[in-house]
Design brief:
With about 180 residues, this protein is α/β, with parallel strands linked by helices. The chain folds into two domains: about 30-95, 2,3-Dihydroxybiphenyl 1,2-Dioxygenase, domain 1 (Roll), CATH 3.10.180.10; about 110-175, 2,3-Dihydroxybiphenyl 1,2-Dioxygenase, domain 1. It is built from four helices and eight strands; from the N terminus they run βαβαβββαβββα. The strands form two sheets. A four-stranded mixed β-sheet has the order 1-4-3-2, covered by helices on one side. It has a four-stranded mixed β-sheet with strand order 5-8-7-6. It starts with about 30 loop residues before the first strand and ends with a helix.
Length: about 180
């Protein structure tokens, strides 16, 4: 495509087409979470959030390049399902996992998992009883005129993955 002459611009909402968009469909397969203790993570996601265990895979030095880990990979992958959402709990026996602490919300990449709940406070207490942590300072209420509020709070799973518990206003849920 030739450059535009000086003073001319592409029409609004129009961009040069570099290559035709290929025809394919895409849907979310799963979200992977590295965990320090597989049994603890299984129990948390099963008991705290209602996930069901599905396939489990033992992997040893067969996908090192795919994972970006040069050698001696020994891992277990546990698929967990909740409705249409599938998470993959990934536990490394070797090499050891790397703890990064609580991620900042403005750090690039995955920031949190979000679940709609009927009661934010009851759900948060339940997650805490199942081994998670409640980030109490994050409890937020968004008020709406002539409607019940939206309420949310952040918690973490036992490995520090941030989990949002969200109760939308009925005015938002109806829309």
């Amino acid at each position: 495509m030739a450059p535009l002459p000086p003073g001319e611009a592409f029409p609004p909402h129009s961009f040069p087409q570099v290559a035709p968009m290929p025809q394919f469909t895409a849907s979310c397969s799963h979200i992977g979470l590295c965990v320090a203790d597989l049994e603890r993570a299984r129990r948390f996601y099963r008991e705290a959030l209602g996930f069901a265990e599905e396939a489990v895979f033992a992997v040893e030095n067969t996908i090192n390049d795919l994972l970006g880990i040069p050698d001696n990979v020994v891992m277990t992958s546990q698929m967990m399902r909740h409705g249409n959402l599938v998470i993959e709990l990934i536990h490394f026996s070797s090499p050891a996992t790397i703890s990064g602490g609580l991620r900042a919300m403005n750090q690039l990449g995955l920031t949190h998992l979000s679940f709609v709940v009927d009661d934010v406070d009851i759900a948060a207490a339940h997650l805490e009883a199942c081994g998670g942590a409640v980030l109490r300072d994050t409890r937020t209420v968004f008020a709406f005129p002539d409607a019940d509020p939206t309420i949310l709070i952040f918690c973490t799973d036992p490995d520090g993955t941030r989990i949002e518990l969200y109760r939308p206003s009925s005015s938002l849920a109806a829309g």
